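Sample 3 of the quickstart, ligand TNX:
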Amino acid sequence: MKNPPLPTPSLIPSPADVSWGDDVFLLPAHGITADFGDLARSDRSRLVRVMSFLPPVDAVQPGASADLRFELTTRVVGAEAYELEVSAAGIRISGSTADGLHYGLQSLRQLLPAQAFSRAPLGDVRLRTCTIQDAPALPWRGALLDVARRFFPKRFLLHFVDTLAAHKINRLHLHLTDDQGWRVESHAFPRLNSVGSVRAASQVTHFDEEPETDGTPHGGFYSSSDLAELVSYAADRGIVVIPEIELPGHSGALLASYPEFGPQDESRSVLTHWGISNSLVSPLPEVQEHLRRLLTEVLAVFPSPWIHLGGDETRLGNWERDPAVSEYMRREGIASVGELFNRFMTDLGAWLTTQGRVMVMWDDAFANSPDDAPPAVVTCWRGTDVARQAAERGHDVVLAPVFPTYLDYYQAADEREPLAIGGPITLEDAAGFDPLDARWGDEVRSRVLGMQFQLWTEMMESERHVEYMAWPRACALAEAAWTGRPAASTPGFLDRLADHLPRLAALGIEYRPLDGPHPWQEAGTGRRHHRVGLPIAEIRGALSQAAEDGATAVSLSGERLDGRS
Ligand code: TNX
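Result:
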């Protein structure tokens, strides 16, 4: 006689197609056999490295009977697609690539009790039979982590990667440099680490308050071997780590280390406060030479096809004021600093092409570029309309609009919410995000590589706070990235999310409970008390207006920084 059917597990992100059977497969705690078929050795060991959530695995000869069978087959179409079948006889995962098979494993993990997300061994597990056919709607499903404003130890990055992989995120955009810190080891430019990786203190006040700092030094950087480890750990989990080296603005830590890379020879320090600075790397050819040497080191550590070079929030007026730059412009017949800025980005992009890489830049850098600018990937933060414009001009775009993908904004308009930059952006807002605007034509849609959520860390002092801000809103955005539609429109999202939270807990993540912060997560009355901050409606309006006007540089409050009106 058959057992009554087991409960149906909830999956996040939602698979394209699932059908549940009434049978059961027993996964024994003492160990399982696995048939790796004709997988290459390297793919096989890659999968084994992410299979630690399963009972101990004994590999068997291909074709022998096995509890778990991997099948590499072109029958499953799509580089990240997979099929997962649980029958009474065993589990089969099929895909046309190791990436696809890896996603099959990630889904299998969600069929197990939440304990499979902890490091404790599983007991015997009764799995309900099912067939899942699944593939992502979007090839770029990303997360940005700002380690420049706040350095987090390597172990946190590795754990973050685990969590991203569990949500089938495949890009980690590491914001490695900014005015407040430089976080990549450099052998060619050692002052980047001795000077650029430390700041004297960190601002603790909010934007419209009298600036005050904590008086405590902050810093750190990742060694080349830390980064190599991160890159390979992420690659095992289908994640490409995309480094961002901010140029020519947001470059205060670079200029503090090497003032001669800046336009004026003035003394500088790594900034202790937040906001948009005057730092602007010089566009002169001799500086470009140094930059290429520096970037060559970065390329050696990051095999990513994409390299992010920033290009946002540049106060171009600083070039105008530098006689050497004016002289260079005259010599080269460059009419405006806007044109010079475009040439700066274009030259770096062209050089990256010779290195076999593609430049990624923020949409500010695209906004004023000539129609024949070489294609780059544009990260669109000032709304989805600027994404449409960039796509129409032939660029591939990644959607990263402030609303609702900036997870440094409050999760509710509630004084209990811990310090954030402004807001609110609620879970419902994140769940309502549609990555493929129905009004866009096929041409534009085909240029949308995907989307990413952003964790800027000016207001996030600890790993605990990063996790609080990220989850569960990022679950909703991961759902949208995988399915290509708003999480709120996929079946039973909120119920599935409620079932999913114990997995986050098992991973050790201090997410925000659905009904608000735990008492120990609240803002309190100390220096991290709740401030109203920048209201999201105003920011959205100001940013999209500025993007529409073709502003190359604009602050969060909509202030134009490019000296044009
Ligand atoms: C804008 S988006 C920035 C970041 C800040 C963030 C704070 C972008 C390209 N620049 O430098 O950290 O807002 O929300």
